[in-house]
UniProtKB/TrEMBL annotation:
Pfam families, per database record: Cupin_2 (PF07883)
Name of the molecule in the record: Cupin type-2 domain-containing protein
Coiled-coil ranges per UniProt: none
UniProt domain Cupin type-2: residue ranges: 134-191
Organism ancestry: Bacteria, Bacillati, Cyanobacteriota, Cyanophyceae, Nodosilineales
InterPro entries cross-referenced by the UniProt entry: Cupin_2, RmlC-like_jellyroll, RmlC_Cupin_sf
Length: 235
């Protein structure tokens, strides 16, 4: 599979069944979108003010452009006069959250002048996460790869996604899929790029043994992390 582009307004349905975790990518463009269980739906609002309905609690959330969410289980988006992207992680039980809107620049350093922000963090080490990536104008990233696929959406700006075999133009509303180990780089025009991108796994994050609650609990001056006999057993 080569890197691929899709137009948000074309309402593509993308399935990555050979990857782990298995995902489906759906979009809404001025219509409603049903979100089915099982799995967790990670979404981003590209334009408009849709309503997100959470079936488990029978409650609704009014979203704004640039907001993002994680919805485990079923629900739906009332997307009249709005548009966005939903990535369904079929074998992942995430936590419900709504966040945003996107900030104007990232909180963390990235490469070649870019920055990033962790929008939806991994609950535990290895879990999926959603990032915002911010690239300044007029740059050409160093050619690089990732150990797992990437699925993202261009929010603002323009440029290209370039591989040794392809030169793919990017503009607001462009969806992209980059396979694992596929060499690529982002190149930006004068406006730069802001992108939201799903990472299906994460090499960092908390564990049952190392997390803020455990680490900062002290027993006779020793962190509970160092006292495994006290740790709760979780299957």
């Amino acid at each position: 599979m080569a890197s691929s582009l899709y137009c948000l307004s074309a309402q593509p349905v993308i399935e990555l069944n050979q990857e782990f975790p298995r995902i489906q990518v759906h979009t809404w463009w001025h219509h409603s979108l049903e979100l089915f269980a099982p799995g967790t739906h990670v979404g981003f609002v590209y334009q408009g003010q849709p309503h997100l309905h959470r079936a488990a609690q029978n409650d609704d959330y009014r979203l704004q452009p640039g907001m993002y969410f994680s919805l485990p289980g079923s629900g739906h988006i009332d997307g009249a006069a709005s548009a966005g992207m939903v990535i369904t992680l079929l074998r992942y039980q995430g936590m419900f959250m709504v966040g945003g809107p996107l900030e104007s620049c990232g909180r963390l350093a990235y490469i070649n002048g870019g920055t990033s922000s962790l929008l939806i963090p991994p609950i535990c080490r290895g879990d999926p996460c959603l990032h915002g990536m911010y690239l300044p104008g007029g740059i050409e990233q160093t050619l690089h790869t990732h150990p797992s696929y990437r699925v993202g959406l261009v929010v603002t700006g323009g440029g290209s996604l370039t591989t040794p075999q392809q030169h793919l133009p990017l503009q607001p509303g462009t969806l992209f899929v980059i396979p694992a180990h596929d060499q690529h780089r982002f190149c930006t025009d004068d406006t730069g790029l802001i992108v939201v991108v799903l990472h299906p796994d994460s090499p960092t994050g908390f564990t049952h043994q190392e997390n803020p609650m455990m680490t900062r609990t002290l027993v006779d001056g020793r962190s509970a992390t160092e006292l495994p006999q006290l740790h709760t057993s979780i299957e």
